[in-house]
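Researcher: Go.
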Amino acid sequence: MKEILELLESDARLTPGQIAAMLGRDEEEVAGIIKELEKNKIILGYFTLINWDKTGAEKVSALIEVKISPQRDVGFDAVAERIYRFPEVRSVRLVSGAYDLAVMVEGRTMKDIAHFVSFKLASMEYVLSTATHFVLKTYKHHGTVVEDGEEDRRQVIVP
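Model: Structure:
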């Protein structure tokens, strides 16, 4: 199971037949394992990693640190759920440190994100404070280097 998950995590386009060949297993067995992993919500979905900077599309990302007051009997979960339901939100994580949640959001412009923080996030009950950090450049995402032209940095040895 772990081997199948690792292969799919590195390339979600792999077919059960390809995975079976790589692992020396039966294709139907691999397909069944994948179906079971999906059913048990171990595999939550598949996605394509896109370098939006190359498309010319207007897109701005920001990491927002959120300090919240936990709710009685549900802790941070209820507030986190309210936050992750907004369409601008790409991820929400409970973190250690000065803030409680790390929230990744996307918008068309910086103004869109500022509006989200001001009118939707900061105004929520139990949200005590926020700190917004705009993403200026992405070097690596989901284990993939985003930059083009990763040059060979080895020193040339001339005899």
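Model: The chain has two domains: 2-39, 52-136.
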